[in-house]
Amino acid sequence: MAATDYVVKDIALAEQGKKLALIAEHEMCGLMQTREKYAAQQPLKGIRLAGSLHMTVQTAILIDTLRVLGADVRWCSCNIFSTTDSAAAYIVSTGVPVFAVKGESLEEYWTYTARTAMFPNGEGPQQIVDDGGDLTLLLHKGFNAENDESVLENPENEEVKFLNQAIRFIWEKQGKGWFHKVVPQVRGISEETTTGVNRLYAMKSAGTLLIPCVNVNDSVTKSKFDNVYGCRHSCVDGILRATDVMLAGKIACVCGYGDVGKGCAESLRAQGARVVVTEIDPICALQACMAGYSVARVEDVLPEAEVYVTTTGNKDVITAEHMSKMRHMAIVGNIGHFDNEIEVDKMSKMPGVKRENIKPQVDKFTFPDGHSIILLAEGRLLNLGCANGHPSFVMSNSFTNQTLAQIGIARGDFKTVDVYTLPKILDEEVARLHLPKLGAKLTVLSKEQADYIGVPVEGPYKKDAYRY
Ligand code: NAI
């Protein structure tokens, strides 16, 4: 039966979402096998599970899986542009309350995050899947605000204003004290992405973390696959769907050469673009050189580069001043989790700058000297804003990790407040589940060989320090 409590663009899109889900299921072999393996055991039976993660077709298969394993799920997207509306409608049609519309406002975004956390009868979530840490932030800030309401005064920007508003919205509906009741009942959070994980470690060091967390991002089968090969697929996909501009021969600047940067640089090079990388870390800069890219600073490439992609998870990487000096019609986009990598607000408020919308998630900004730049997805992650994000096969790896993390949380594997990673043997298991679909045949160690290199025949095969 369809859910009654939801906000999606158009519930009539459910049929289309269901058909797309069928293609995704076929690709998401590891996730589907994990679903089959645990379905009978019902490891998530009756658990109230709230998710804040891009509401795409691939996420629909994750939600289906969590439900098949017994969870009572509510969901929202973790970015205002990243929802695939048909996938959201499909999930509602299966009975799950979803609050996600592609192009929702920031205010709606935070209200939807709040509504996702509010289960019927005044209850809150017992387990959370988060991507970027906004749902985690809402619960922590709401908890702190019940101790000292002054934390909600003088918000430093619009985003924080709406976050604070969402906390008050929950108080209005559930009464003050709701966060103090709910937060201690949350058994664990599994966090999807680098930026969200960075936030968790920061809270842990500050002593403000209230809930045990699983760092899914740093499973090798997540960050070394989704962040790299996912972006290798979806970076160029987003740029091309947005602009249809030929990339071959152009100079493209990739800011940051971590996992996401490596994938983006490769995808642009594969199109024939000449890629320049910017980095702050000498190791990553050297890696970029050895992979055959030039390494320079954004200022150095302004006269030449026609495409810019930020991948750093840092702020103010492309500044308003940079954009004021770029080539005419340079394309500027970000694929990192938050939009503050590009100084969009400052640039758009520069005297004489004019904005013209080309189509949804594509804007032209013209400077007083007559040159323009094309900004993708208002500076939010371009692969989900201008395309549909990563393809299903790679997301199967990420979401198998998410599912195993949720099962582990339910089983009580992560009781003390801390940030955990999944054991390497599970990481290897996730990879193992995905090999047959690619026709790969693993070599099996003999006992003698295993003893010689000092590993068990069945794994794990690497020390924790190994970096892949
Ligand atoms: P990472 O830590 O592996 O890489 C970031 C790199 O940026 C590092 O090498 C760092 O040295 C460099 N960097 C930092 N500040 C810089 C600056 N001012 N200029 C140049 N380089 C700078 O992180 P990862 O995993 O590559 O993630 C990057 C971002 O992408 C995060 O926000 C993450 O959450 C997000 N992400 C987005 C995805 C998407 O589908 N759009 C998928 C996966 C991650």
Question: Could you walk me through the main structural features you see in this protein, from its secondary elements to its overall organization?
Answer:
With 468 residues, this protein is of the alpha/beta class. Helix content is 44%, strand content 13%. It contains 20 helices and 15 strands. Strands 9-8-7-10-11-14-13-12 form an 8-stranded mixed β-sheet, covered by helices on one side. A 7-stranded parallel β-sheet has the order 3-2-1-4-5-6-15, sandwiched between helices. Helix 1 (14-27) packs across helix 3 (57-68). The chain is globular. Bound molecules: 1,4-dihydronicotinamide adenine dinucleotide. Its EC number is 3.13.2.1. Its cofactor is NAD(+). Keywords: Hydrolase, NAD, One-carbon metabolism.
List key phrases describing it.
single chain, alpha/beta, seven-stranded parallel beta sheet, binds 1,4-dihydronicotinamide adenine dinucleotide
